[in-house]
Amino acid sequence: MFTRKLLPVGNALLENASVPVSKASLTLLTYNMLSPYYMWPQVYTYVPEKYQDWTYRHRLLEREILNLYKADIMCLQELTVKDYEGFWKPHCKNKINYGSSYISKTPPAYWKRPQDEMDGVGIFYNLDKFQHLSTTSIYLNDLMGLFNISELNYLKNTTVTLTNGAGEQTGKDSLLNVLHSRNQVSLFVSLMHKETRTLFVVINTHLYWKYDEVKLCQCLTIMRKLHRVIKQLLVGRDGATYSRIKILLAGDLNSSPNSPVVKFLKGESVQRSDFSLINPLRPYLNHYIYQDTPSELFDHTCYSGKLKGIFDYIWYHDNDFRLKRILSGVEISEELNLLKEFGLPNKNHPSDHIPILTELELLD
Q1: Rounded to whole angstroms, how far apart are CA atoms 310 and 298?
Q2: Which residue ranges make up each domain of the chain?
Q3: Which class does domain 6-141+182-363 fall in?
Q4: Is the pLDDT of residue 333 over 90?
């Protein structure tokens, strides 16, 4: 097994500029855990049955998340209701003094299992370092009040060519209908950093796995909800201003670094039909970790058979945070090549995604 390394990374622009830097820092992890109910037989044919076993994989997840990494803030995706309520929530509160928040997806039409086996996203935070202020969640198919009439008309009149898991065309539908039929969620947790009294909003999400138009609309939904969360956070808080709140967005975006989703979150204009789509929260988010990371440190963050790529992100504004260290990922590719294995999970890694661990320094 190749050992991943928590490596320092340099940001030349910040290091060479006269930017006042506080000594305060935090560690943040994002991790798609691979729900046991998404271990589709037709997808994971390359994984030996003993390594598909949930008990085996869960022990590895516990070791990684709670022992190896134990970040100050942990954003987990594909976390089931049953696993959150039965293990992660009580264990983190009683054993390591971490608070947590969670939202489950709604079961899709094909779902025949109990509702508590549905997955969602959770945020865990170190109560020795943070005070919990509030939690808000959103279903990304709930567009009520977030899109105006002209935007809804655009969604209604835009056609999406539907495909199956093999990429074969199966029909067409309006973008609005496709959005309404998806069950993705997003979680917003507001925290105060006890040492610096800094206010944070931490966002965890897991976007739909295909159709750029759907993922763009889901991102816009998150950003518009975030604006409301920030506004509510300021109510009754003397001395707090919009400019003093820092945002951290983490999760599985199912989008590569050259995708429209990443371009949108960076604050660049994404042209659609006769209008330009621009992130309304670009003053809070404009930067992701791989912009400050040497390209040779990561091949992929997802190793799911034929589906490989960098899909897992941590976002912030480069006036608010500096990336100090990151857990490298290229060792996973080297390990798979040595073992002549097709993908993850395997004996050493419990998910088809790898955990992304960072240390971020707070900038004054």
Answers
A1: 8
A2: 6-141+182-363
A3: alpha beta
A4: yes
